[in-house]
Amino acid sequence: MKSLMTIIIVLFAVTAFSQKENRYIRKGNNSFEEQNYKDAEVDYMKALEKNPESAKGQFNLGDALYKQENYEDAAKLYQNLSENAPDDNARADSWYNLGNTLLQSKKYEEAINAYKNSLKLRPDDMDAKYNLEYAKKMLKQQQQQQKNQNKNKDKDKKDKNKDKQKQDQKDKQDQQKKDKKEEQQKQDQKQNQNQNQDQQNQNKQQQQKQQQQQTKQISKKDAERMLAALKNNEKKTLEKVKKQKMKGVRAKSIEKDW
Hints:
single chain, rod-shaped, mainly alpha
């Protein structure tokens, strides 16, 4: 009797929770139809508070998030349902909506896989087939764009390398010109120094020559003066000697013996 009462109480509690859950889901559905997606999100969250395992609540919450372009959180809900939904039809819907979410996020390869999984469970779904082909087309365009971008990057890289090579060549030529100019300046400076040194040596030799000539001329004049002085002194000396000799000659008196 006690066991029967316990079962009845549990069933009553489950029914009460289920009714509250369904009430929030219905309220959320009304908001969703009126395009009040944020209000719908709130109601679906309340339904999941009553029953966190509610597949209907998770699926509808994913739809509300999708409409608000919250693709990341919507994808998490659809991914969970694609594995844990109660039947194949619910799992097929979850894979399909997951594909749509990935398509909006431009994750085309993952979207293609999601649509394929949906079609495995529901092969005649024309919407899934159409979206699959569209995802393939977008993937091809994406790959082509990526290829073009890589090509442009390679071209830009080559152009940059060419520009760098040109600049390096120009820098090298400029440096060579600079080195050549500096070398020429050094040579000119050395040549000027040599010319100045030669000029200084010539000037010095000229000065020495002039000094020698002056010395020679002075010596000649001095010699002439000295010779003249000697001659003059000699003349004076001769005259002096002559006078002295004349003074020494005395007259002798003649004594007669008278």
